[in-house]
Amino acid sequence: MSKKVLVILGHGLNDSLCGALSAQYAESAAAAGHQVQVLKLGELEFDPILRQGFRQIQPLEADLQQAQAQIAWAEHIALIYPIWWGAAPALLKGFIDRVFLPGFAFKYDENSSFQVKLLAGRSAHLMATMDTPPWYYRWVYRLSVLKQMRKTTLEFCGIKVSKTAVFGPVISADDTQKATWLAQASALAAQI
Questions:
Q1: Which of 37, 79, 130, 190 is deepest in the core (most CB within 10 A)?
Q2: What is the pLDDT of residues 23-74, one digit of tens each?
Q3: How many helices (H) does the chain have, and how many strands (E)?
Q4: 4-189: which CATH number, 3.40.30.10, 1.25.40.10, 3.40.50.360, 3.90.1720.10?
C-alpha cells in the first residue's frame, strides 16, 4: 500500500554518508510506489535556538512552517543523522526544539498527567551513522541517542519507530562497506 513518506536528512551536508543514505532511501521508497518528499535540514534557514523556551512561542520561519506541513502530510518518516559526541547534531536538535512544539506535536490535557500525542498514526525508521563501532555503542552506551530519539521525542509525539539501523564505524569504512550500508537503506525502505 502506498504511503506518504518524508525523508529527513539531519546532517548539515548533502554530500555526506547520511546524505547518500537519505537519497538511497528516498529513491527506493519512490521505486516501491510511495509518495516521497525529502527535507534537508542543512538547506533550511532558521534559528535553531528556542530563545524563550516554552514561555513564549517564537514565530516560525517560512522553512519551519513548510517543515511542519511536510510532517503533518507524512504517514511515515525516515530520520537519518550522524551521532556526534554521543548525541544528535545541534542542527537536528534545534530543528526538533523549534518544530515539535506544543499544539503541533503534542499538547497537555488539564485532566490528565500525560500528553496528547498529536502526531499519532505515523511510523518511522531511524538511521544513524557513527565512528564508534556499533557493537560498542550498543553494549557500552546502550544505544542512548537512538533510545532518546525514539522514546522521548518521536513516540512522545505519537510517531511509532518500527526499525532502527546504525552504520559504523564510518571513519574506517571503504567503498565496499558504504555500498553495503546503502543496500541496507534500500532494504529498510522496502519495509515501509
A1: 79
A2: 999 999 999 999 999 999 999 999 999 999 988 889 999 999 999 999 999 9
A3: 6, 7
A4: 3.40.50.360
